[in-house]
Design goal:
The structure is a homodimer.
Chain A: H1 4-19, H2 26-33, H3 36-44, H4 77-80, H5 95-105, E1 111-113, H6 120-127, E2 140-142, H7 147-159, E3 164-167, E4 184-187, E5 194-197, E6 203-207, H8 212-220, H9 238-243, H10 251-254, H11 257-260, E7 261-267, E8 273-276, H12 290-293, E9 302-309, E10 316-324, H13 327-341, E11 345-352, H14 353-363, E12 375-383, H15 386-402, E13 408-411, H16 415-426, H17 428-433, E14 437-444, H18 452-463, E15 475-483, E16 488-495, H19 500-506, H20 509-516, H21 541-554
Parallel strand pairs in A: 2-4, 3-4
Antiparallel strand pairs in A: 1-2, 5-6, 6-9, 7-8, 7-9, 10-12, 10-13, 11-12, 11-15, 14-16, 15-16
Helix pairs in contact in A: 1-15, 3-6, 13-15
Amino acid sequence: MPSIHRAVPALRRLRLANTAFQQPAFVTLQAAARPAYQIRYQHAEAQQEAAPTTSASSADHAPQDQPDRPQSKIKPTAESYPNLKRDSRFKEVTAEDVKFFKELLGSESAIIDGVNQDASEDLEAFNADWMRKYRGQTKVVLKPESTEQVSKIMKYCNDNLLAVNPQGGNTGLVGGSVPVFDEIVINLGRMNKIHSFDEVSGILVADAGVILQQADDHAAKSGHIFPLDLGAKGSCQIGGNVATNAGGLRLIRYGSMHGNILGLEAVLPDGTIMDDLSKLRKNNTGYDLKQLFIGGEGTIGIITKISILCPQRSPAVNVAYFGLESYEKVQQAFREAKKQLSEILSAFELMDKQSQQLYHRATGNKLPLQNEHPFYCLIETSGSNTDHDSEKLNTFLEHVMGEEIVSDGVVAENETQVQNLWACREGISEAGQHFGGVYKYDLSIPLPQLYDLVNETRERFQNNGLMGDTEDFPVLDVIGYGHMGDSNLHLNIATRRYDKEVEKAIEPWVYEWVAKRNGSISAEHGLGLAKKEFIGYSRSETMIRLMKQIKGLYDPNGIMNPYKYI
Amino acid sequence: MPSIHRAVPALRRLRLANTAFQQPAFVTLQAAARPAYQIRYQHAEAQQEAAPTTSASSADHAPQDQPDRPQSKIKPTAESYPNLKRDSRFKEVTAEDVKFFKELLGSESAIIDGVNQDASEDLEAFNADWMRKYRGQTKVVLKPESTEQVSKIMKYCNDNLLAVNPQGGNTGLVGGSVPVFDEIVINLGRMNKIHSFDEVSGILVADAGVILQQADDHAAKSGHIFPLDLGAKGSCQIGGNVATNAGGLRLIRYGSMHGNILGLEAVLPDGTIMDDLSKLRKNNTGYDLKQLFIGGEGTIGIITKISILCPQRSPAVNVAYFGLESYEKVQQAFREAKKQLSEILSAFELMDKQSQQLYHRATGNKLPLQNEHPFYCLIETSGSNTDHDSEKLNTFLEHVMGEEIVSDGVVAENETQVQNLWACREGISEAGQHFGGVYKYDLSIPLPQLYDLVNETRERFQNNGLMGDTEDFPVLDVIGYGHMGDSNLHLNIATRRYDKEVEKAIEPWVYEWVAKRNGSISAEHGLGLAKKEFIGYSRSETMIRLMKQIKGLYDPNGIMNPYKYI
């Protein structure tokens, strides 16, 4: 067993190595990979003040790089899912309806009218999702600028049986934010004001359409942090984050939306404005109804405003990246990190060798460690005192290296290195898509069994002849990474092309595998259209029945985000 | 302005003074104050293994010391609230019903039968609340030992329109846990097993009837902490904690039940077992129904099991107590503590001069500081490294003393001193009751205005002739204290005797005052019977209507915990 002496020089050597850390070509790649329609989307939503460059950082939710599949070839969802039939109870939008909406919204720019004219190009960004997997056929996009307008729209649609699709930043991964057929899109992008921020309590009140990055920037001004961070932060909207109960990179530290959201304003299908916009940390006066809307994916109401508790922002941030020889050692390292870093641990991310190789191949970026290891982890600490945090992190690293839990590691010494290390984790999602397409599974699995699924999936593809090194094989590689601290695995099948055989080989097998271990088939991405069929693998019949009861209570006509969720 | 030099010797001096800190007579007082019925209660619930002494620590929820009001004089709630009428739809319990329950539960000790015999003495502990303010008239107490038994009880009661009152440790402060008329008490005390604890993730799965202290002790074995702490921890049950969304002393650090509860098992009125006992930190598969039961106060279902995330327990705990000259300085100190102590701050409690004087008068305990100050604060830090935490706390204290934000202060140097400082805060509740009775208000108020209410209430009683130094005046003093970190004020009117004139002088004025400032009339105590009438001061008509809709959905016969909540 190596002594502490060996560990310390090792750390020092790696630090030196790290100063020569190569600037990644990552930003360039992402810019090149961004398809045309997304740029148009930024134009269409110029009011959101989302600089085109910010969406390039949306590693976890970025569109696929598919130069061989031009935009017009995205299949309509109705074709990809032939079993789905348009619900004939819903009325089709008429010129008369559009007239009502135009008068209500009072501005030409607040509506895209594909009923009285051909507006297919303008509608495309609202019909298609970022993944380029789903495409709806809406003819009308409404962009209200007030809760009252949303209320009147909803009442009209409910009275007239017009189906609607609430839409935030449209950065979801399960097809929840775009229509399936001709549902009217209600886009919240114009409701983008920050209403108040209490600098003592850290409580932010803002419209649902505020971009996550803007909300965080606002909180940062007074030393606070928005308690959610994810790749899509430059494009996604906080209302959508709440509606999908987004998890992201620092849930291990700041907890979920269910704990952080203090109040909500939402519009119900019948136009009722649910005014639950409390700015109090504690309020035990009745059922906490707002919780139903957190993760409700726009199926029982449209979130219009949120009130959220923003914790203190940590001035000291440290990031370490290390290599380990087995998944057993990854678990040991996690246990030690929880114990020793405790209150300053703000991320513990897992990346397997395959994910890092793929990242390297896709980006050309040099990896932080010279030698290869079966597993890598990224640890982030956030605290109020740089010296204390560095000491804790170094003590931890000396311990895990001394005990041979960790084989090798680097610690970032400046902001650029912090970003480079994070890029090795955040860049995986995009890398998986780089060579064609990707099948993504977002799963909660008890920690001891979490990586077994990746091994078994890889074996499955090795044995069924679908995975190989040449163009003959659809599957390039099976990679596993994710939020170790939350038992949340992202299992990705990186492919050269979408192929029904690949899908058949993995579904529903993967869901059965997860169900057997009492995991979740959707840890943080939600149900949307993609997982609707599979909810039974994670929820009992009783729970599904009770959920349907809630849906029926709030949306008896079923007009909200139909064909999805439950 | 004093220099840092002055601050440091001051701290040192106070530390020295602190070592001579007097052992408080607090434990003795509490033992003396515990009324007879409570001791019987401990006998009746011997299965809970709650040592009689533990209830003595229940400062926030302890019974009143009223030697002049013997037990038999606790008025039935039906008399104190003459407007309440028994709902004639509910059937009265018959010998036949009792027969069914006896056969179902299969044990003599699992039922208290006041139908076939006089059992009033045995029933008393289940009919009367700890505050000795409420007393029901149940004739039957059921103590199921499994979820299946609870399910069968509920189905039978629902089918036969028998009203029920779910009951945990019966430590609530708003009359929610005891019957009003003859509702059957379903006591969870026999369902007290810990089912699993994952030492890596910190996830605990346990029966609802587990005592909070036991749950925390179990978590402590592997270096974790139950993310809730309150005075009643020796008696209250975790199911009741969840059902009332208990807040407690360290919400500022660990957040609310809505964020920490990962799964619930609950029995609905029709006997349905809601099996939502997820052990996953992330599970975005449908509406988060369990949230309705958190804070639902047993009105739509009985919680039978919980799954909860327990964070890492901090080995280093520091407590400081200091005096300040104004509420403005209290707010400044809070801002600085948030900034400088950030991730290690685990409590920031406020106590006014009056509350500390009353504590001193009631207990005879010496206060930690020699000179008197208008305000006192108690700060607790919890972290993984003693040296780091001490350094942060000292830097903070030097800063706030140097800036004259804080006038004087002490830091505990050992566990006894930690307990003594905490006693000055936790002992207030009991002290308020020491001289007769107490009117308690548990309010959320925006921080800048929080203490204004105490001043205005005091003025009110100074002007209306109800407060004074002699026995002629019912009101002894008005005190303010509470969880500053959560904007949660406990406003207490310490009285020599209960007097309707006192109540009239304060209600509904206090609720109007809070409503005007968008506060909450019940921050953490819940609604129960006491606040049912006043929910309109904190919730809109729309919200109340939507809540009633939920109640109607789950409990169409209204048999669950009737006459209370909404």
